[in-house]
């Protein structure tokens, strides 16, 4: 009886806690809606003041969304919006996540869309700026029939703004020598790659590609694992860690939408082609798991082993929009726990996220110096570098186009890995991960039964590596040795 009473009391306490979280959250997020709405107009004014032009945002509609690039936003009836980017030899179709411009039933967001659309409908002209054409007539629709066998699909051209933004940092982005090192001619077209070569290059038996997660950098690997590999591993493996597009010392182009294709092509160009990788192992964390799976599908015969840390795979119910579903799982608009509140803040609010970047990312050198001062230089600050050395445009689009936008693709990727890729799949997850729940890793195993799942008790999204780097380095070495033996 006493046990039942305690259990009933705990149930009531949890129910009250959930009610408080939802009630207080409703009020807090309503205030944040108002603040983000006001910041929208604030940043438009500041952008015009500092850069002499109005910059579009996602508060209005997909017609205007990020129309500052040399890309055309296209929608297919009943499908996601796509971006058409044209080069001299190719026309590319990139899917962009609809969560960029549709993030929930916010009254203020709807009001913002209404105001923006009224402004634009009042302006019917076309401005000619040399070779640049801007069209603000959203009544214009160009219909194009595309044949696929006997099928015909109708496409609607929503916006044809083709102005290209400069690659120089925007006024709200950091312009220190570290963050702008990619602007030098030698670094402009490739990612920053940190390579730890064996002393005898000819002795390198295998290559390992490390892909970091969201708001991180190659330092997540080079400062933790690289020094802790055994002498044998350092002699036999070429270790390659990359800063993803928009992070660390890699390019941070203002005109990029940071789509899956852009991320993959930069990795292929900067790592696979540059270092002539024929076979390689992959170790990926969080966001990096999405890119790792996409690479595995694209290069199935090249992957020797696949190690995923906290993969963000959510089983999407039938009939549900995948991107919207994943967004609500990752960022459910809760004020508790703090990690979920932070995720909701940067996922739902474009302008609040930009403000965070303006305050923290632009002053990352000061944050780093203060951290060293207050800890008497006893704390290594490589995590601060990864967390703060990026631009809002890159982090915002990567979050939506990769993590949320790939929600509908991961299941097919995993099916392909299961059926067409012959490599070991190993998964690690922190038992106390508040960012990506452990259930995501078990869901991967249901799709790829041969995958091995290791849940590390008392570890979270970061400490699954940081703090246990020696143990994890040994675990990786065993995975590589086992996969090499199996392949033989």
From TrEMBL:
Alphabetic keyword roster: Membrane, Transmembrane, Transmembrane helix
Domain AB hydrolase-1 intervals: 208-317
Transmembrane intervals: 24-43
InterPro entries referenced in this protein's UniProt entry, alphabetically: AB_hydrolase_1, AB_hydrolase_fold
Any one Pfam family match given in the protein's UniProt record, by short name: Abhydrolase_1
Extent of the signal sequence: none
Stretches of the chain forming a coiled coil according to its record: none
Protein name per its UniProtKB record: AB hydrolase-1 domain-containing protein
Organism: Brassica napus (Rape)
């Amino acid at each position: 009886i006493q046990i039942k009473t305690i259990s009933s009391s705990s149930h009531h306490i949890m129910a009250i806690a959930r009610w408080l979280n939802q009630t207080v959250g409703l009020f807090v997020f309503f205030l944040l809606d108002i603040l983000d709405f006001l910041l929208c107009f604030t940043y438009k004014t500041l952008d015009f003041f500092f850069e002499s032009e109005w910059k579009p945002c996602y508060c209005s509609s997909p017609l205007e969304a990020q129309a500052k690039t040399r890309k055309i936003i296209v929608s297919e009836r009943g499908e996601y919006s796509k971006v058409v980017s044209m080069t001299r030899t190719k026309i590319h179709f990139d899917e962009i996540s609809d969560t960029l411009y549709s993030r929930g039933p916010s009254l203020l967001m709807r009001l913002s869309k209404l105001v923006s659309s009224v402004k634009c409908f009042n302006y019917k002209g076309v401005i000619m700026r040399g070779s640049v054409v801007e069209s603000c007539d959203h009544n214009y629709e160009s219909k194009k029939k595309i044949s696929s066998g006997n099928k015909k699909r109708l496409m609607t051209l929503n916006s044809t703004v083709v102005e290209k933004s400069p690659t120089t940092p925007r006024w709200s982005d950091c312009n220190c020598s570290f963050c702008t090192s990619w602007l030098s001619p030698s670094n402009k077209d490739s990612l920053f790659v940190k390579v730890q070569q064996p002393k005898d290059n000819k002795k390198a038996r295998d290559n390992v590609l490390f892909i970091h997660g969201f708001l991180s950098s190659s330092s997540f690997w080079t400062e933790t694992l690289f020094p802790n590999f055994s002498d044998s591993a350092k002699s036999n493996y070429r270790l390659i860690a990359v800063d993803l597009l928009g992070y660390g010392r890699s390019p941070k182009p203002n005109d990029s939408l940071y789509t899956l294709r852009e991320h993959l092509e930069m990795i292929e160009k900067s790592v696979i082609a540059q270092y002539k990788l024929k076979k390689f192992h992959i170790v990926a964390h969080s966001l990096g798991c999405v890119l790792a799976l996409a690479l595995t599908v694209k290069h199935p015969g090249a992957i020797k082993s696949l190690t995923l840390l906290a993969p963000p795979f959510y089983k999407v119910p039938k009939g549900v929009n995948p991107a919207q579903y994943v967004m609500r799982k990752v960022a459910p608009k809760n004020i508790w726990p703090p990690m979920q509140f932070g995720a909701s803040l940067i996922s739902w609010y474009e302008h609040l996220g930009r403000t965070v970047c303006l305050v923290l990312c632009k002053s990352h050198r000061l944050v780093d110096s203060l951290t060293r001062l207050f800890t008497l230089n006893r704390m290594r600050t490589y995590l601060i570098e990864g967390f703060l050395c990026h631009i809002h445009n890159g982090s915002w689009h990567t979050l939506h186009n990769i993590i949320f936008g790939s929600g509908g693709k991961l299941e097919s990727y995993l099916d392909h890995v299961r059926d067409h890729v012959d490599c070991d799949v190993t998964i690690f997850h922190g038992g106390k991960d508040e960012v990506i729940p452990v259930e995501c890793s078990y869901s991967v195993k249901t799709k790829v039964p041969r995958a091995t799942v290791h849940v590390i008790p008392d570890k979270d999204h970061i400490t699954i590596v940081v703090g246990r780097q020696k143990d994890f380095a040994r675990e990786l070495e065993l995975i590589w040795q086992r996969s090499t033996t199996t392949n033989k």
